[in-house]
C-alpha cells in the first residue's frame, strides 16, 4: 500500500523531473521512449515508486554518414562478393565515442572502457554489447543492433526494447538495490547506452570493485530474451571527499556529504533535512543544486536519484547528483542551491528562452576546496 501523501508525491515528481530515471522491469517502449520523445510534455507514470523525466534536451550525434563514406571507398577496392560479405558483418565500433556525454567520450578516448563486442542473435536479430565502464559512481554499457541494409529501421533500438533485467553476480538488481535504469542516445538509431548506479549513499550496499553482470534484454516481436554476460571492473583513479559541511536557511539544512571526481563523472551526495522534523513538504519548496568550479564553469547534468530517509521519523532527502567530469581537476567546487519559481497554478515560470526560472539561495551556498592528494 502506498502511504505517501499527495504533497510527497508532487515533491518526488518534481525531483524526478530533473533526473530522467527509468526503473527496471518496466515497459521501456511506453514508459521510457515516449517520455524521451515528448520531453517535458507528457505526464509521469509510476513503477517501483520512481519516475523518469528528462531534464535536458538530448541530441543524437550521428556518425553514420562518415562511416558509410569510408566503407564505400574500401568496397570500391575489393570484389563484389567480399563487399557483400562485409555488409553482413557488424562493424567493431564504440558507442561511447559518439555520445554527448563527455565522461563516456573520455572513457573511450583514454582507453578506460572495456571493449567487448559480445553478441547474441535470435530470429535474425543481432544485439551486440560494444563496451562497458564503471568508475565507482555509475555503470555504463554500450549496446547496438546489427543493421542490415534495406531492412525496416523506422523503429530505433530504444523503441524495440521492451524489457531489461540485470543480474549482479547472479543476484537480480531491482528498486531495492540499484538506482533504476537510465538511457542515453548515441551515434544513431541502432545504438543506445544503458546506465545505472548503486544506492550506497541511500542505505543500500555498494557494488563490488569487480563483478559479473548479466544483461537480459527483450526485443519486441522476439520471444527469447537476449542474454549477455558482461565483466565489470572499477577503473579507480578518483578523488573522494567527505566534507560533511552544512548550511541552514529557514526550515532547511543542506549538508554536502560526499564529492567524488573521476575521469568519467563528478558525483555530489547531499542531504536536505527539515529543521522542524516534519515529514510533509510542498514540492514547490524543493531544493535543487547547481555545481561550479572555481572559474564558474558548470558541467552538464548526467542524471541522479534521491530517496527520503523516513525510517527515523524524519524526512531527510538524500540525493546523488551526477554531472560531466571537469576537464582538469578543479581547485574548488561550489554548490549553489536553488528553487524553481512557479505560477499560481503550480506550473514553472519560464524565462525568455522557455526554460524554467530559478532562484538561488545564497545562504545555503557551499564551496569545497579540492585536495588532489585525497
What does this protein structure show overall?
By secondary structure, the protein is of the alpha+beta class. It folds into two domains: 6-71 and 90-233, Immunoglobulin-like, CATH 2.60.40; 239-369, Conserved domain protein (Immunoglobulin-like). The chain is 14% helix and 35% strand. The chain contains six helices and 19 strands. It has helices spanning 6-16, 28-38, 64-75, 80-87, 102-109, 157-160; strands at 114-122, 125-134, 139-145, 161-168, 171-172, 182-185, 191-196, 210-219, 226-233, 239-241, 245-249, 252-261, 266-274, 288-293, 301-309, 316-323, 332-340, 358-360, 366-369. Strands 10, 11, 12, 13, 15 and 16 form a six-stranded antiparallel beta sheet that branches. The chain is globular and about 60 Å long. The termini are far apart.
In a few lines, what is going on in this structure?
With 374 residues, the protein is an alpha+beta fold. It is 14% helix and 35% strand.
Fold blueprint:
Blueprint lengths: L5 H11 L11 H11 L25 H12 L4 H8 L14 H8 L4 E9 L2 E10 L4 E7 L11 H4 E8 L2 E2 L9 E4 L5 E6 L13 E10 L6 E8 L5 E3 L3 E5 L2 E10 L4 E9 L13 E6 L7 E9 L6 E8 L8 E9 L17 E3 L5 E4 L5
Antiparallel strand pairs: 1-2, 2-3, 3-7, 4-5, 4-8, 6-7, 8-9, 10-12, 11-12, 12-13, 13-16, 14-17, 15-16, 17-18, 17-19
Amino acid at each position: 500500500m502506498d502511504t505517501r501523501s499527495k504533497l510527497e508525491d508532487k515533491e518526488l515528481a518534481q525531483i524526478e523531473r530533473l533526473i530522467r530515471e527509468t526503473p527496471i522491469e518496466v515497459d521501456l517502449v511506453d514508459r521510457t521512449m515516449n517520455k524521451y520523445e515528448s520531453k517535458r510534455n507528457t505526464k509521469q507514470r509510476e513503477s517501483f515508486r520512481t519516475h523518469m523525466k528528462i531534464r535536458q534536451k538530448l541530441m543524437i550525434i550521428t556518425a553514420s554518414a562518415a562511416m558509410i563514406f569510408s566503407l564505400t571507398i574500401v568496397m570500391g577496392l575489393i570484389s563484389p562478393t567480399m563487399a557483400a560479405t562485409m555488409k553482413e558483418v557488424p562493424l567493431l565500433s564504440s558507442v561511447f565515442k559518439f555520445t554527448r556525454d563527455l565522461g563516456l567520450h573520455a572513457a573511450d578516448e583514454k582507453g578506460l572502457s572495456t571493449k567487448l563486442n559480445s553478441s547474441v542473435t535470435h530470429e535474425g536479430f543481432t544485439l551486440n554489447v560494444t563496451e562497458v565502464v564503471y568508475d565507482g559512481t555509475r555503470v555504463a554499457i554500450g549496446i547496438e543492433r546489427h543493421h542490415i541494409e534495406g531492412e525496416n529501421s523506422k523503429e530505433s533500438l530504444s523503441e524495440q526494447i521492451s524489457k531489461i533485467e540485470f543480474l549482479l553476480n547472479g543476484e537480480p538488481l531491482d528498486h531495492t538495490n540499484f538506482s533504476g535504469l537510465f538511457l542515453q542516445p548515441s551515434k544513431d538509431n541502432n545504438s543506445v547506452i544503458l546506465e545505472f548506479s548503486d544506492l550506497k549513499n541511500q542505505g543500500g550496499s555498494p557494488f563490488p570493485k569487480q563483478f559479473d553482470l548479466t544483461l537480459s534484454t527483450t526485443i519486441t516481436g522476439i520471444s527469447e530474451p537476449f542474454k549477455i554476460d558482461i565483466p565489470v571492473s572499477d577503473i579507480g583513479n578518483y578523488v573522494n571527499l567527505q566534507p560533511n559541511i552544512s548550511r541552514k536557511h529557514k526550515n532547511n539544512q543542506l549538508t554536502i556529504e560526499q564529492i567524488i571526481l573521476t575521469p568519467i563523472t563528478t558525483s555530489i551526495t547531499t542531504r536536505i533535512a527539515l529543521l522542524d522534523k516534519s515529514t510533509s513538504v510542498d514540492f514547490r519548496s524543493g531544493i535543487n543544486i547547481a555545481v561550479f568550479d572555481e572559474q564558474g564553469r558548470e558541467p552538464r547534468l548526467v542524471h541522479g536519484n534521491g530517496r527520503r530517509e523516513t525510517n527515523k521519523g524524519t524526512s531527510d532527502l538524500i540525493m546523488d547528483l551526477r554531472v560531466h567530469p571537469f576537464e582538469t581537476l578543479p581547485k574548488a567546487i561550489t554548490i549553489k542551491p536553488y528553487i524553481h519559481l512557479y505560477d499560481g497554478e503550480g506550473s514553472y515560470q519560464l524565462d525568455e528562452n522557455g526554460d524554467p526560472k530559478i532562484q538561488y539561495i545564497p545562504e545555503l551556498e557551499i564551496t569545497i576546496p579540492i585536495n588532489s592528494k585525497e
